[in-house]
């Protein structure tokens, strides 16, 4: 969350619990600089899983205009929900990081064929390709955590034999609360598995590869 607009998670959780609003609507209303998924994790931790799941189910059914669990399996309902999400994204583009500029990257001597979600990830791949210290790289595997899972961006093998987990972020998002929370989880996992974790923007990536 932005420091100038930081709202305690307890306040957000209680507001969400007392009002018929989705987490996406809360993000929009509070102007929070956080993804829906990580706000969901924070609220779930505060309220408890059972309370969170029950409340989320009621909100989803209300928004879709349905009343039972079996109804959510109906294709027409799923289409209705999808249209609602699309309409919200169109009206609130600032709260979503679109990946329409992503692309598939061809297989090379250093990497398998992989998909980059953004121009930033493509720039990271280009740095890996040109670095003499990088032997190979690929998409990182999922990391399990007590509150869910987290998928970093890249797993990199250096010429020294050191393995790195690298998370690509634009400079303005490095100090974001959710980003730092994920980084802490990843660092703990990496220390147990023999990896080095590196949260980086494109400007600092080269130095991290040259001086691991």
Can you walk me through this structure?
The protein has 212 residues and is an alpha+beta fold. The chain folds into 2 domains: 3-95, no CATH class; 103-210, Trna Endonuclease, Chain: A, domain 1 (3-Layer(aba) Sandwich). Helix content is 48%, strand content 17%. The protein is built from 8 helices and 8 strands. Strands 3-6-7-8 form a 4-stranded mixed sheet, with helices on both faces. Strands 1-2 form a two-stranded antiparallel sheet. Strands 4-5 form a two-stranded antiparallel sheet. Helix 7 (177-193) links the parallel strand 7 (163-168) and strand 8 (195-200). Helix 1 packs across helix 3 (36-47), helix 3 crosses helix 4 (49-64) and helix 6 (119-130) packs parallel to helix 8.
């Amino acid at each position: 969350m932005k420091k100038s607009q930081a709202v305690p998670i307890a306040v957000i959780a209680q507001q969400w619990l007392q009002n018929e609003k989705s987490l996406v609507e809360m993000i929009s209303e509070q102007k929070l600089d956080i993804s829906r998924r990580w706000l969901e994790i924070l609220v779930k931790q505060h309220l408890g899983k059972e309370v969170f799941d029950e409340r989320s189910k009621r909100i989803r059914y209300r928004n879709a205009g349905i009343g039972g669990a079996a109804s959510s399996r109906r294709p027409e309902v799923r289409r209705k929900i999808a249209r609602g999400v699309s309409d919200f994204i169109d009206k609130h583009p600032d709260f979503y990081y679109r990946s329409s500029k992503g692309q598939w990257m061809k297989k090379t001597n250093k990497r398998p064929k992989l998909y980059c979600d953004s121009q930033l990830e493509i720039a990271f791949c280009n740095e890996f390709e040109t670095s003499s210290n990088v032997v190979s790289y690929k998409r990182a595997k999922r990391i399990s955590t007590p509150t869910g899972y987290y998928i970093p961006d890249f797993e990199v093998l250096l010429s020294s034999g050191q393995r790195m987990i690298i998370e690509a972020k634009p400079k303005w998002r490095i100090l974001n609360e959710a980003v730092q929370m994920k980084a802490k989880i990843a660092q703990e996992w990496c220390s147990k598995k023999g990896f080095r974790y590196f949260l980086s923007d494109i400007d600092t990536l080269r130095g991290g590869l040259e001086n691991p």
